[in-house]
Amino acid sequence: MMKNILFIHGGAPTAVINASLYGAIIEARNNNEVDRILAAARGTGGLLKDQIIDLTDSTSQQLEILLHTPGSAIGTGRDHLEAEHYATMKDILLTHDVGYVLMTGGNGTMDTCRKLAIACEASGIKVCGIPKTMDNDLSKTDHSPGFASAARYLAGSVAEAAQDVKGLAIHVVVIESFGRDSGWLTASSVLARKSSGEAPHMILCPENSFDEEEFLSRIKRLYEEKQGVVVVASEGLRYADGSPIVEPIYEVGRSTYFGDVSSHLAQLITKKLGIKARSEKPGILGRASARWMSSIDRDEAIQCGRKAVTAVTEGKTAMMASIVRDSDSPYASHIEMVKIDDSVIEAKRMREIYFSDGGYDISEAFRTWLSPLIEPELEEYVSFLD
Questions:
Q1: How far is CA 120 from CA 38, 112, 221, 375, in A?
Q2: Which end of the chain has a smaller Cβ tally under 10 Å, C or N?
């Protein structure tokens, strides 16, 4: 008997979360087990309020536009859920004759996906996940949809800023990146550097403890050599004792809103060294930019959506689509389904092999890992300065 399928988005949007939705809708339309195609408006909070969107009759034009639309077309959220909420969601799903649920999100959403799958087990509703995070901190997948596009945006923006700083070499510019616990996105700025000695001149990831004295000493040397310095720093920088270098201004559940790390570092440079410094914080511009979308990121997001639909309608539950890398050059990958367990939800941090220069730079091994995901490649720039 045909059942309805329902999509739920969780956590922060990315440039390609709608590409996963596109792939899932296309696959669902061609699946003999699926009747109507539904979505919860603004995540689990919308589902709990019985706010259901019917996507069944979406036009071909809408879907083609959806493929290139950033943000979440069905809305998303960061809802705190208690045990009783899962029973309520199950009951609401049953009233809408939903037999299949797909949840798109990161660590927290996959945890919710697993718990909802358990709550729905007796009712026969199958629940699976589609990975999504620009931070790339979701485990048991080579990388997550959303990351490569955000990485392309950051690397490209740092490359552009570097040309500005090189042309007017009078200050230190500190650019802040997302990355609460992992430095994947921050590290991606290394692709802005086309040859040795070019910007970014320092890359600071949360996997490495921040040492203020060492930081300032290195900044001083770089400034004396170049006069124009570019630093990329993660929002999640911490001292050796684990405390953040800038106290979070707001925390609720898993959501942490950090203070301005880039502003703090720029002020530190000016006050301690007497060097002019400024801060930049792209923030959500990086995850909302469709113009910097990686074509590989978009294509893999579609594939994850399609694979998850196939899996859930075949009876799989509490599983997540996972990207498996087959080769770097030429780049190739395929999608598998993995069981959602504690190892999936655990935050994936960068390996030591991906760092160099005592943790102040990024290694060639990371560049080799990341480069195939950035398509099209970043533009080349010319400078007649030394």
A1: 17, 12, 60, 40
A2: C
Query: Which tokens go with 88?
Result: 């309520």
The verdict on residue 385 lying in a domain is no
Residues 364 and 273 placed together within one structural domain of the fold: yes
- Are 146 and 133 spatial neighbours (Cβ–Cβ below 8 Å)? yes
Determine the residue type at 60: S
Give the model confidence (pLDDT) of 69-119 as tens digits: 999 999 999 999 999 999 999 999 999 999 999 999 999 999 999 999 999
> What is the model's pLDDT at position 386?
72
Among residues 378, 386, 381, 383, the alpha carbon closest in space to that of 190 is found at 378
Between CA 166 and CA 188 the distance in angstroms is: 20
CATH number of 330's domain: 3.40.50.450
Domain that holds residue 222: 151-287+349-373
Give me the amino acid identity at 159: A
From 111, 135, 297, 361, active-site residue:
135
For residues 373 and 143, the answer to whether their CB atoms sit within 8 Å is yes
Strand (E) or helix (H) holding 92:
helix 83-95
**DSSP secondary structure string, 274-337?**
---EEEE--TTHHHH-STT--HHHHHHHHHHHHHHHHHHHTT--SEEEEEEEEEETTEEEEEEE
Does 111 participate in catalysis according to the annotation?
Answer: no
- The residues that bridge with 53 in the sheet, in sequence order, are 39
Angle at alpha carbon of residue 148, lines to 147 and 154, rounded to 5° = 90
Shortest CA distance to 110 belongs to which of 348, 347, 344?
344
